[in-house]
Specification:
The chain has 364 residues and is mainly β. It is built from five helices and 22 strands. It folds into three domains: 2-128, TIM Barrel, CATH 3.20.20; 133-279, Galactose-binding domain-like (Jelly Rolls, Sandwich); 283-363, Immunoglobulin-like (Sandwich), CATH 2.60.40.3080. Helix content is 14%, strand content 43%. β4 and β5 form a beta hairpin. The protein is globular and about 70 Å long. It starts with a strand and ends with a strand.
């Protein structure tokens, strides 16, 4: 079974003219390699994997790639994750493509994009980037539908009900289109240029799919996220998807499920939307004084503080821990010989656990 991978589409095809004018609004979208971003990819393959396992069919990824309008660091992180994850699943794969908009070779300079070559062939699977989350919406189905509504159109019929702390959606007669039955939750506050994760936990006694997205609650009813397709089975499962709010802020957006093209029951145990912030972008308020010098630095970075520094962690610009050190001192010299040039964050863990201080420096 051959399968293409272009998830998340707003990242992989940002600025691609043939994908529609709206793709220009997604220029600058990054792949930070967070757990939420990875789950967006993994969940999109759940149905294909289920079919392949049931029928003993191997999966070949016939094409995958991120368009050149995305920044190279993000393309390399995305390509590394997909390559290694495909291999972990036992998939064969083919990269799209050699020397055009997605390619690994520059025909003008006659050189390879080494970052992409390494991503495809050499990079190990890294740990996901650490994030902090803030809840925007979390369901509570203990006594009512928690603001969820079901709208029915054309020939679609169905109902919403609460049972055993879960939301029961029952489509008794399907319509001709998915939107002929829509389950929606309004008044979702989205901030421009923020990253979000949508998590859905549920099951279907007979098995059925849905289309879910986060978008505008008025004309033209466009989606801010991609359109996701969770496949609900008889086992309760959690599906997680991430997206960046590429539009202006919308304080009255909605979460929408298009479920009108199939009959059947879906039982939701939880629906949650969270704002995601990279850990290295949250600079803790300095509760003590720590000095670092010089900046920029070549080989030796000095620091001193008025409290005992228990340990430090060195992060690269993507948020991954580059190295960590046990200190137990108020003054220290960090040797950076062999550390690649770039922007780094140092996290200081102090003698009192409530104190964490971040400093930024540039390695020449």
């Amino acid at each position: 079974m051959s399968y293409g991978a272009n998830t998340p589409f707003h990242f992989t095809h940002q600025g691609a003219d043939w994908s529609g004018d709206e793709m220009n609004s997604w220029l600058g979208t990054k792949w930070n390699d967070t757990e939420a971003e990875r789950n967006t990819v993994i969940n999109e393959f759940s149905q294909a994997i289920a079919i392949a396992n049931d029928n003993n069919i191997p999966i070949n990824i016939g094409e995958f790639g991120a368009y050149s309008k995305a920044d190279m660091s993000s393309r390399a992180r995305w390509t590394t994750f997909l390559s290694r994850w495909f291999e972990e699943q036992g998939f064969s794969w083919t990269y799209w493509e050699f020397s055009a908009g997605f390619g690994i070779y520059n025909p003008v300079t006659k050189t390879y994009y080494q970052e992409l070559v390494d991503a495809l062939l050499h990079n190990p699977m890294p740990e996901p980037t650490t994030v902090h989350t803030t809840t925007v919406y979390e369901s509570n189905f203990s006594s009512n539908t928690n603001g969820w509504n079901l709208s029915l159109n054309a020939s679609a019929t169905g109902s919403l009900s609460i049972d055993n702390d879960s939301l029961h959606l029952d489509i008794t007669n399907k319509g001709a289109e998915g939107w002929h039955a829509q389950m929606t939750r309004q008044n979702i506050h989205l901030e421009a240029n923020q990253n979000y994760q949508l998590s859905i936990s549920g099951r279907s006694p007979t098995g059925r799919s849905a289309t879910v997205y986060v978008g505008r609650d008025s004309n033209p009813w466009n989606a801010y996220s991609d359109y996701y397709s969770p496949l609900f089975t008889s086992n309760n499962e959690t599906f997680a998807y991430s997206f960046k709010m590429g539009n202006v802020s919308d304080p009255v957006a909605r979460i929408a499920f298009d479920i009108g093209n199939e009959s059947g029951v879906i039982i939701f145990s939880s629906i949650k939307l969270e704002k995601i912030t990279l850990a290295n972008s949250l600079l803790y308020k300095n509760s003590c004084s720590i000095k670092t010098w010089p900046n920029p630095v070549k080989d030796d970075l000095y620091f001193s503080g008025d409290l005992l520094i228990k340990s430090i962690e060195l992060f690269d610009i993507s948020g991954r821990i580059y190295n960590s050190y046990t200190i137990n001192a108020q003054e220290f010299k960090l040797y950076l010989y062999g550390t690649p040039p770039g922007l780094y964050f140092v996290k200081f863990n102090l003698e009192s656990e409530k104190y964490q201080v971040y400093k930024i420096f540039i390695r020449e």
